[in-house]
TrEMBL record:
<keyword id="KW-0285">Flavoprotein</keyword>
<protein>
    <submittedName>
        <fullName>UDP-galactopyranose mutase</fullName>
        <ecNumber>5.4.99.9</ecNumber>
    </submittedName>
</protein>
<keyword id="KW-0413">Isomerase</keyword>
<feature type="domain" description="UDP-galactopyranose mutase C-terminal">
    <location>
        <begin position="151"/>
        <end position="348"/>
    </location>
</feature>
<dbReference type="GO" id="GO:0050660">
    <property type="term" value="F:flavin adenine dinucleotide binding"/>
</dbReference>
<keyword id="KW-0274">FAD</keyword>
<dbReference type="GO" id="GO:0005829">
    <property type="term" value="C:cytosol"/>
</dbReference>
<comment type="similarity">
    <text>Belongs to the UDP-galactopyranose/dTDP-fucopyranose mutase family.</text>
</comment>
<dbReference type="GO" id="GO:0008767">
    <property type="term" value="F:UDP-galactopyranose mutase activity"/>
</dbReference>
<dbReference type="Pfam" id="PF13450">
    <property type="entry name" value="NAD_binding_8"/>
</dbReference>
<dbReference type="Pfam" id="PF03275">
    <property type="entry name" value="GLF"/>
</dbReference>
<dbReference type="InterPro" id="IPR015899">
    <property type="entry name" value="UDP-GalPyranose_mutase_C"/>
</dbReference>
<dbReference type="InterPro" id="IPR004379">
    <property type="entry name" value="UDP-GALP_mutase"/>
</dbReference>
């Protein structure tokens, strides 16, 4: 392939969507590189040694209220209807998470029957806050201290390595609190999983004659010349961490596979949370719930958050945001470089939000009109 017009660093959602749009709409040659040995970023899925389809980097559940996003991705995949449900293990009792009426009745031996009764329960225990300064405030202001201690504090401390009082309010405010019996984790209008898996979706996204993909490649080793760069990696890495490293949270996984000769499932739902700090992992995922695969074995992932490893989550604290803004000021002065995605923008984004951001970034930088000059 001749020198590309555009180089995209990172083959996750941000990079793949940008590459597809640039090639398909603008008719430009695109080279996509990724330092990992595969495409699809953290959404990568593949069959393990037992033939069970798993998400290598933890469970990825697609949900969105943005029709523009679901319509766009539907060009590259069929969908399998799936509504995600999570249970929390509280002293051996499994209760729905997010908190709903069933959760309260199970934890406290109650028989609350209406939304008004549930709201009255919350109101009687909520601790009023004039301002939500942190994630502890965000929870106790809604449901009170006991539920905060039971379901949120330990889990958050394990997930982030910080007490909720040290984290931005948005971290725990993302989790809804319900007064009805709706036990779905998400309330979005569109809740589905790619029918053939995420990797297959990415293969179709990147299947264009003007796109070349190279995995196992570092940006520093690239020798091609190009007109524009799309950067989806950590923004501090692009600038050689000149102001210091931005903190990211990572994950590691322990895997267990058990025989299921009749195709049965091992857990009642895909994910069981473990909020107690006495348990070292945060959650256990059984992937066949997510994929719908029928198999004679089932694989479980035990998830352990870590400060070391590949960057997964920007750590939402005011001092980290201030450090990011110093890098963002440099990025704003760049010519011919577009920063997009969770790591490049230092934002805690869901998959649909990354896709929406990439579509918006493409339009802003490259325009939406189809190019007349298409490379042969």
């Amino acid at each position: 392939m001749p020198d590309p017009d555009v180089v995209v660093v990172g083959a996750g959602f941000a990079g793949a969507v940008m590459a597809e749009r640039i090639a398909a709409v603008r008719g430009l040659r695109v080279l996509v590189i990724d330092r990992r040995d595969h495409i699809a970023g953290n959404a990568f899925d593949a069959r393990d040694q037992h033939g069970v389809l798993i998400h290598r980097y933890g469970p990825h559940i697609f949900h969105t209220n943005a029709a523009k996003v679901s319509d766009y991705l539907s060009r590259f995949t069929e969908w399998r209807a799936y509504e995600h449900r999570v249970l929390a293990d509280v002293g051996g009792r499994l209760v729905p998470m997010p908190i709903n009426r069933t959760t309260l009745n199970a934890l406290y031996g109650l028989s609350l029957r209406s939304s008004d009764e549930v709201q009255a329960f919350f109101d009687a225990r909520a601790e009023r806050r004039e301002r939500l300064e942190n994630s502890e405030d965000a929870v106790v202001a809604k449901v009170g201290r006991e539920l905060y201690e039971t379901l949120f504090r330990g889990y958050t401390r394990k997930q982030w390595g910080l007490d909720p009082s040290e984290l931005h309010a948005q971290v725990c405010a993302r989790i809804p609190v319900r007064t009805n019996d709706d036990d779905r984790y998400f309330g979005d209008a569109f809740q589905c999983m790619p029918a053939d898996g995420y990797t297959a979706l990415f293969e179709r996204l990147l299947d264009h004659p003007l796109i070349e993909v190279r995995t196992g490649v570092e940006f520093a080793d690239l020798r091609e010349r190009y007109d524009h760069l799309v950067w989806t990696g950590p923004i501090d890495e692009y600038y050689d961490r000149r102001f210091g490293a931005l903190p990211y949270r990572s994950l590691r996984f322990e895997t267990e596979t058990r025989a299921t000769p009749s195709g049965e499932l091992l857990q009642p739902v895909a994910v069981i949370n473990h909020p107690s700090e006495d348990v070292p992992y945060t959650r256990v995922t059984e992937y066949r719930h997510l994929t719908g695969q029928v198999h004679g074995a089932s694989t479980l992932h035990y998830e352990y958050p870590s400060a070391e490893g590949d960057p997964y989550y920007p750590v939402p604290r005011p001092e980290n945001r201030a450090l990011y803004q110093r890098y963002a000021a440099l990025a704003a002065r760049e010519k011919g470089v577009t920063f997009v995605g969770r790591l490049a923008r230092y934002q805690y984004l869901n998959m649909d939000q990354v896709v929406a951001q990439a579509l918006a970034a493409f339009t802003a930088v490259f325009g939406a009109e189809r190019s007349r000059a298409v490379h042969a």
